[in-house]
From TrEMBL, chain A:
The chain crosses the membrane at residues 16-37, 57-80, 87-107, 113-137, 146-165, 197-215, 244-261, 281-310, 317-337. It is a multi-pass membrane protein. GO terms for cellular component: plasma membrane. Its main location: membrane. Pfam families: BPD_transp_2 (PF02653). This is Sugar ABC transporter permease. The keyword Mitochondrion does not apply. It is found in: Cell membrane. One of its GO terms (molecular function) is transmembrane transporter activity.
Length: 357, 310
């Protein structure tokens, strides 16, 4: 009979292999799903995983989708490392989009080169402000940040709806729930002619590097890692738990807000009630699959972006609902969590011992 | 307020509170055994869509409820295998279950989005339903409302009067001691998690088959998370779960009645709709302020994996 046996120390090899194993299992599971739905699994694989990246435009779309994911995920990872469970990135993303839109609408018609930087700052501040609520309630009143940050996602969604159905609705928009389109000065410049890939991608890469530097090269980042991996040691060393909660949530919120800004000032060009497309939740998966480190998050965000676009392709060519990408994304995280057991344990074949406690 | 308005508001409050009671009591049992399953939202969504589909095809809401229960349990089983057998992190696994369940429900439910079910008639309890003011509101209700009350009384007895309940609580307080005495900790936790999944599935079924007889993506609308918050708010006590659920039901209904009342209140409906979520936050803050209440009442091993040294 197979048994799990504890390893003397966690396997470094497995902690890298585990995400790969999870990816392979997800692809295998995905092909099973395709055949269960009566589709040719190889055709499904081709459309879902290969079609999206077959040309330069496809690749640029992949990077475009990966941009908000890596931004949200690197911010979340900083908190997760210290056991600060911000799962409201989706709401912080929306508030970042709202703040940036506010700036764009207020300075409507402005040609100033400062408009875009102002929107970037506003986006980050908007996200951070929304994340400050769970931080304050957690540090002052001990309220669980998981539940508070999550409730605020629903509040944010309703707030965005109110704005685009009410005060911010485009008067010439045929009553659609959306703001007017931003002027050129309020839009992210495109990086690659003929594609939609915009400056936000470069910004996201910069934030990834900054996140790496913070987590691996700064004392504050070190303290947060200790707090997550050895809470008793952190307490003994006198590291302030309150400060870590604030840092984790504010940085996570700022990064998510930046991502939201990048969406309204990038591919959307306006604020609509569909601004939150689940990136904030998908980023949780990205953060875990990326092992909470910057380089892993880069790879994981590309993979998750592929799953998003693959879902759209499956809708177009296989006539499947695009929500199939959420199914695959969930499967990926399940397989990862399952494979992770082999970091601390190994399988051992063992004859069943005679029962008798 | 006139009498008929009071009666209809009470009626609606009870209906709105019912799924929260069922789901939160199920989660309470899981948590009493020391397992924190944050995937309630996903289990409810799957329960809702499974119940809807089966009711639609079979014409029987009761088969639908059974299917919802089964779907919730299947989801809970995935969670159990990850956290209890493979000892994965409970918070991460619960989040995964929430994301996966909501996604899978949206995927499976796509063909049912334009379908409506026939409303299930309420069950009238003779005589007491004739009581003035409250009779119509409390005793001419959906069967699952009565089920939620039975569940409450049953759980009170189970947790505090039965030996099995004592064992369950022991497993949550100190799995090592329970194991040492010879109780199968992992098996008991599996059962508790499955019970939580079954109740979440029934809660979801209530939403899609009885409450609003239709399926729409995102229709669970955070109720799974609110139920999780309710358990904390209730400091892991069934009676307070019940009170809390009706309070939330009341908040949800009040804002709906204000929106529908034609009262010329100059307040945007979207902002009114966010009231229940704010209420959840306020209540969490109020109850968590005193760190001791939480520490003293929460099951000691909540969220911590346990592996018996065979």
């Amino acid at each position: 009979m197979l048994e799990l046996e504890a390893r003397a120390e966690p396997s470094r090899l497995m902690s890298w292999l585990s995400p790969l194993l999870a990816v392979v299992l997800t692809i295998a599971g995905g092909m099973l799903v395709f055949s269960a739905l009566g589709k040719d699994p190889l055709e499904g694989f081709r459309i879902f995983f290969l079609n999206p990246v077959k040309d330069l435009y496809g690749l640029s779309e992949l990077l475009l989708k990966a941009t908000p994911l890596m931004l949200c995920a690197i911010g979340l990872a900083i908190g997760f490392r210290a056991n600060v469970w911000n799962i409201g990135a989706e709401g912080q993303f929306m508030l970042g989009a709202v703040a940036a839109t506010g700036v764009a609408l207020y300075f409507d018609g402005s040609e100033s080169a400062l408009l875009l930087p102002a929107m970037i700052v506003a986006g980050a501040l908007g996200g951070a402000a929304w994340a400050a609520i769970p931080a304050l309630l957690r540090t002052r009143f001990n309220a669980n940040e998981i539940l508070v940050s999550l409730m605020l996602v629903y509040v944010a969604q309703l707030f965005v709806s109110w704005l685009v159905f009410g005060p911010w609705k485009d008067p010439d928009g045929f009553n659609f729930p959306q703001t007017q389109m931003f002027g050129d000065a309020a839009l992210m410049p495109v990086l690659l002619e003929g594609t939609r890939l915009h400056l936000g991608f470069a910004l996201a890469l910069a934030v990834l590097v900054a996140g790496y530097a913070f987590m691996n090269r700064s004392f504050a980042g070190f303290r947060m890692r200790v707090a997550g991996e050895a809470p008793d040691a952190a307490r003994y060393a006198g590291f302030s738990a309150t400060r870590m909660i604030w840092i984790g949530l504010l940085l996570g919120g700022a990064a998510a807000g930046l991502a939201g800004m990048g969406e309204v000032a990038g591919p959307m060009g306006q604020l609509t009630d569909k601004v939150g497309s689940g990136y904030g939740f998908a980023a949780i998966i990205v953060a875990f699959v990326g092992r909470l480190n910057a380089f892993g998050i880069l790879l994981a965000s590309l993979l998750m972006a592929l799953l998003y676009i693959g879902g759209e392709q499956a809708q177009q060519y296989l006539n499947l609902p695009s929500s199939i990408s959420m199914v695959f994304q969930g499967m990926l995280l399940f397989f990862l969590l399952g494979s992770d057991v082999f970091i601390n344990y190994r399988l051992r074949l063992r004859r069943r011992a005679v029962q008798g406690h | 307020m006139d009498a008929s308005l009071f009666t209809s508001m009470l009626f609606a409050t009870v209906v709105a509170g019912t799924p929260l009671i069922i789901v939160a009591l199920g989660l309470l049992v899981s948590e009493k055994a020391g397992v924190l399953n944050l995937g309630a939202e996903g289990m409810m969504a799957m329960g809702a869509v499974a119940a809807f589909a089966v009711t639609h095809h079979s014409g029987s809401p009761w088969l639908g409820v059974l299917a919802g229960m089964g779907a919730g349990m299947a989801m809970a089983l995935i969670f159990g295998m990850l956290t209890l057998t493979l000892m994965a992190n409970q918070v991460a696994s619960g989040l995964a279950l929430a994301i996966f369940g909501v996604g899978l429900a949206a995927f499976v439910g796509k063909p049912y989005e334009a379908v409506a079910l026939q409303a299930v008639p309420p069950i009238r309890i003779p005589f007491i339903a004739d009581l003035p003011l409250i009779g119509e509101a409390l005793y001419n209700q959906q069967a699952l409302v009565y089920f939620s009350w039975a569940l409450f009384w049953g759980l009170l007895w189970f947790l505090y009067r039965s030996r099995a309940g004592l064992v369950l609580r022991a497993v949550g307080e100190s799995p090592a001691s329970a194991h040492a005495i010879g109780y199968p900790v992992i098996r008991i936790r599996y059962l508790a998690v499955l019970f939580g999944g079954a109740m979440a599935g029934i809660g979801g079924a209530f939403l899609s088959v009885f409450y609003t007889p239709m399926w729409a993506e995102g229709m669970v609308a955070g109720r799974g998370w609110i139920a999780l918050a309710l358990v904390v708010f209730a400091t892991w006590r069934p009676l307070r779960v019940m009170i809390g659920a009706y309070l939330f039901g009341g908040v949800m209904i009040t804002q709906l009645f204000i929106q529908g009342s034609g009262l010329q209140i100059d307040f945007p409906s979207q902002l009114l709709s966010s009231l229940p979520y704010w209420a959840t936050i306020v209540v969490l803050v109020a109850i968590s302020r005193n760190a001791n209440t939480i520490r003293l009442n929460s099951p000691v091993s909540l969220g911590k994996p346990y592996r018996p040294d065979a």
